[in-house]
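Journal club side-thread
Mid-discussion, someone asked how the predicted structure for our own chain would compare to the paper's figures. Pasting it here so we can look after the session.
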Amino acid sequence: MSKVYRSCEQAVSDIGNGASLAVGGFGLNGIPHNLIQAVLAQGARDLVTVSNNCGVDGWGLGVLLDNRRIRRTTGSYVGENKEFERQYLHGELEVELVPQGTLAERLRAGGCGIPAFYTPAGVGTPVADGGLPWRYDGSGGIAVASPPKETREFAGKPYVLEEGIVCDFALVRASVADTEGNLVFHAATRNFNPLCAMAGKITIVEVEELVEPGTISPENVHLPGIFVQRIVHVGAEGKRIERITTRKRSS
């Protein structure tokens, strides 16, 4: 059965209300913006997202936030998005903040069938001890706080237990894919994309260039096709720069 779908709309058509989504990208770098727009148009609500960040106002996952489609999100960075801040502080959005390396490992562990692992990151902080505000009550109080996590010593050092992440779907973007789903990412666009792809029960990839099997040399494959179920060829148009910092050239 072919993994190639005609459109993003077709590929995301069975994402239902309340589904969990692992979404690749870092800032606006390597984000599957076409798939995100298709989810918006499709209409799914009460989504649970796992992503390094939640886009910006009006782009990336920010478009789902703007339309109140996300109920809960797990990530490591929440800047660059005023609507995210507003929803969180007003008790409209549940947020689990995770150290960035821990988030990466939780996604990788989920994709490898590892239910949990111990890490030193977060020991002695609210990450391990609990009490982080997951959801506010809208008037400044905490409605839902993070629970304490199991800790254990190894060789005299404390570690905290973190659980692997598995999501119903993964939305990722790749630079090149063959029709079997073997993926190549260009430079920094790799970021969280392979990890999110591993963590999805059904992984949907939007790809800039689609080639035939055998075109990509095996040693150049960044993620094997066993992790990919659906592919949509979208081309390279529509990418944005999060923050332009270049200065004007002198005449």
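Post-session note: The two ends are 58 Å apart (CA to CA).
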